[in-house]
Amino acid sequence: MGLLLPILLAFLAALIGALYLLGVFRQRLPGEPPLDKGLIPWLGHVFEFRRDTLKFLERMKQKHGDVFTVQLGGFYITFLQDPESFGAFVKESREKLDFSKFAVHLVRRVFGYVAVQDEHHILQTSSNKHLKGDGLEVMTQAMMSNLQNLMLHNISSAADQRDWIDDGLFMYCYNIVFRAGYLSLYGNVPHNSRESEEKAKEKDRTESEALFYEFRKYDQLFPNLAYGILSPRQKSEAERLMKFFWNFLSVQNMKTKDNISRWVWDMHQARVEMGMKDSMINKYMFVLLWASQGNTGPSSFWLLLYLMKHPEAMKAVKEEVDKVLRESGQEVQRGGPLINLTREMLTKTPVLDSAIDETLRLTAAPLLTRAVLQDMTLKMADGREYFIRKGDRMAMFPYVVHIDPEIHPDPQSFKYDRFLNPDGKKKTEFYKAGKKLKYYNMPWGAGVSMCPGRFFATNELKQFAFLMLVYFEFELKNPDEKIPEIDFRRWGFGTMQPQKDVPFRYRLRY
Ligand code: HEM
Description:
Structural class: alpha+beta
Bound molecules: protoporphyrin IX containing FE
Number of domains: 2
Number of strands: 13
Keywords: Endoplasmic reticulum, Heme, Iron, Lipid biosynthesis, Lipid metabolism, Membrane, Metal-binding, Transmembrane, Transmembrane helix
GO cellular component, one term: endoplasmic reticulum membrane
GO molecular function, one term: sterol 12-alpha-hydroxylase activity
Number of helices: 18
CATH class of the largest domain: Mainly Alpha
Organism: Anabas testudineus (Climbing perch)
C-alpha cells in the first residue's frame, strides 16, 4: 500500500499533464472569441480542415460568426473572417503577431533550411531592389528571352510546328512558365560564340526540363509534406528529391552560370558574408525556387483556360494585345525578328490585368498565419474587441472574401472585366455592407509576408499570355469540356491546381 499510493499519484499527475497538453482543459475565457476544440483531443478539427478548408471555415463561420478559435493539430488558431477588420491582423505590430516564427518552422521541415536572424530583412531588401522598379525591367527582359528560347526556338526551321500539337494545358503552361522563370532567376548556360550560343540555349532547355519533372514530383507531395503526413515511401522520395534540388541549385553549379539574377545572387552573397556553409545556402536556393516557381505556372494555366472558355474575354484580351503590339511598331512575320515585349508595353494592358486579377481571385487561396507572441486585443472594425492568448496563432483565409457574393456578385463566374471601370481604368472600389473595402482581392497575401515577387509574377503571366496570343492558335480539344474542379488538398498553399488536366492543341500562327 505504501508504494501503491505514490505510483497512483504519479500516474494521475502524468494523466492530468497529458490531458492538459492535449488541450482538454482549455475553456473559453470572458472576452475571448468562441472556442471550438472539436471532438478529437489535440488533433481537434484537423481532418475536416485538411479535407476542405473552405467548407470547414464556412461551417465554423455559420456556427460562430466571423471570429472564432479552433483547435488544429495541437494549435489553437483564431480565424478572422471579416474583411473590414483585416487591417487589425495585417497591421498589428511584429511584437504581437509574428510571421517569421511560423515560416522558420515550416521551411526547416519542408526544405531542410535553418533560417538565420536577419532572414526576412535580407529577402525584403533584395526584393525591393530587384523585383521592382529598374530591377524589374532587367528581370522582364530576362524572362522574355527565356520564354522565346522555350516557346519559339524552332520557329524559323520547323514546318511541323505549323501542325497542331496536342498537350495537356496544365502541364504545358506549368512547364513553360516554370522553366522560363527558373532560367531568369538562376541564370543560363554560358556561351562565347554564335555557334555555342545555340548549344547553350539547347542545354538550358534540356536542363530546365529535367528540373521541372522533378519539381512536379515534389509539388505533388507538398501538401502532405507540409502537414507532416507522408507515408514512409513518400518520405524517402521527398528526401531524394530534396537532395536532387540542393545539388542542382548548388552554389557550385550556380557559379558556372551567366545572367544569374541579382535577386538570387544578393541573397546568396548575404549568406556567404554571414559565414553560412555552402550546403545550407544550397538549401535556401531550393526555398527560393519553391516560392518563386510554385504558383506562376498554375496561374498561367487558369488564365488561358478561362480565356478559352469565355470567347468574349479572349476577344477583348486579344484585341488589346494586338493594339499594344501595333503601337510599339512591331509585327509578327514569318521569318521576321522575334517581337520584343518591353516592360513599358506591359503597362498598357488594363484588360489583361483585369483578366489576371479575376483569375487569381478564383484560384489563389493562401492561408496567412501568424504566431501570437503576447496577449493582445483584436479590435474589429465595428468596435467589438476580442482577447487573444499568447502562444496561440491567428490566421486569415482571404478566399472567403474572393467568393463573397456581396463583394463580388456572381462570385463563381469568371468575368474578365470585373476589375475594370467603364473608363477602362483599373477598378479598385468594392463594398460590403455599404462600406468601401481595402482588402477585396488578396492573391498575394498582405502585410509583412506579402509576396515580394508579385510584380514580376504578374509580368511573367502577361508575357506568357501575350506570346501565346500573338504567335499561336490554341483551342480546347473538347470545346464543351467543363472547367475542372480544384484540388481541395491544396487550399492554403497559394494558387490552386486542377483535379485533372485539360486536353488542348496549339500551333504556330505564322
Ligand atoms: C502567381 C504567382 C504567385 C502567387 C499567387 C504568389 C503568392 C504568394 C503569397 C500569397 C505569399 C505569402 C504567403 C504567406 O503570407 O504566408 C507569397 C510569398 C512569397 N512569394 Fe509569392 N507568389 C507568386 C509568385 C512569386 C514569384 C514569381 C516570386 C519570386 C520571384 C515569389 C516570391 C515569394 C517569396 C520569396 C515569398 C515569401 C515572402 C516572405 O517570406 O515574406 N512569388 N507569395
